[in-house]
Design a protein that fits this description.
The complex is a heterodimer of chains A (115) and B (114). Helix content of chain A is 0%, strand content 53%. In chain A, the strands form 3 sheets. In chain A, strands 2, 5, 6, 10, 11 and 12 form a 6-stranded mixed β-sheet that branches. Chain A has a 4-stranded antiparallel β-sheet with strand order 3-9-8-7, with no helix packed on it. Chain A is globular. In chain B, the strands form 2 sheets. In chain B, strands 2, 4, 5, 6, 9, 10 and 11 form a 7-stranded mixed β-sheet that branches. In chain B, strands 1-3-8-7 form a 4-stranded antiparallel β-sheet, with no helix packed on it. Chain B starts with a strand and ends with a strand. The chains are: A mainly beta (115), B mainly beta (114). At the A-B interface, strand 5, strand 6 and strand 10 of A face strand 5 and strand 9 of B.
Chain lengths: 115, 114
């Protein structure tokens, strides 16, 4: 069965410091993995995706993520946080079959950025 | 521009009333989804459809109904049987056979019971 675990429900950083949002996955197949960002009362916007090409994926707004098959992880990082990064972040796995219509969501990580 | 549109942005429902949330996409996606979002609970799947005239229940389908008469449209009706409908509702679409492509989301509808 496929699953996604976001290891932190809430992360707080200071502006200008690095961001690390952790995601572990379980999949029977070679997965496609995505990170989305959601600002309050908005829809989800794609940050980046891994689709079995390069293991280090660069996304929008300076975010990147590294796919590590041995650790079944896809952690999201950014070298320097900005106030506008404060939002909720979702890790998503896509795979064939299952009861969720191919989209498996993590519970989300709320990122707070202190001035 | 292609995209997915939800309307209205805000909706108020009286007790015992049915309301319908609209979701339209012009991305030519076969699959469409409805999620409910409550504070601290992530996204929970209500219904999804992978092809016209067919749909499946998600984890929390009770009190909701959907139809998929057109590829572009997937309206969600919140019925009076849904006892706690106040939430943020998100619609999404994707191509189910292309796993390396992302899902697109609407901007959401906030439903409040008054």
């Amino acid at each position: 069965a496929q699953s996604v675990t976001q290891l932190d429900s809430h992360v707080s950083v200071s502006e200008g410091t690095p961001v690390l949002l952790r995601c572990n996955y379980s999949s029977s197949y070679s997965p496609s993995l995505f990170w989305y960002v959601q600002h309050p009362n908005k829809g989800l916007q794609l940050l980046l995706k891994y689709t079995s090409a390069a293991t280090l994926v660069k996304g929008i707004n300076g975010f990147e993520a590294e796919f590590k098959k041995s650790e079944t992880s896809f952690h999201l990082t950014k070298p320097s946080a900005h106030m506008s990064d404060a939002a909720e972040y979702f890790c998503v796995v896509r795979s064939y079959g299952g009861s969720q219509g191919n989209l498996i969501f993590g519970k989300g990580t709320k990122l707070s950025v202190k001035p | 521009d292609g995209g997915i549109t939800q309307s209205p942005k805000y909706l108020f429902r009286k007790e015992g009333q049915n309301v319908t949330l609209s979701c339209e996409q012009n991305l030519n996606h076969d699959a469409m989804y409805w999620y409910r979002q409550d504070p601290g609970q992530g996204l929970r799947l209500i219904y999804y459809s992978q092809i016209v005239n067919d749909f499946q229940k998600g984890d929390i389908a009770e009190g909701y109904s959907v139809s998929r008469e057109k590829k572009e449209s997937f309206p969600l009706t919140v019925t009076s049987a849904q006892k706690n409908p106040t939430a943020f509702y998100l619609c999404a679409s994707n191509s189910p056979g292309q796993l390396n492509t992302e899902a697109f989301f609407g901007q959401g509808t906030r439903l409040t019971v008054v």
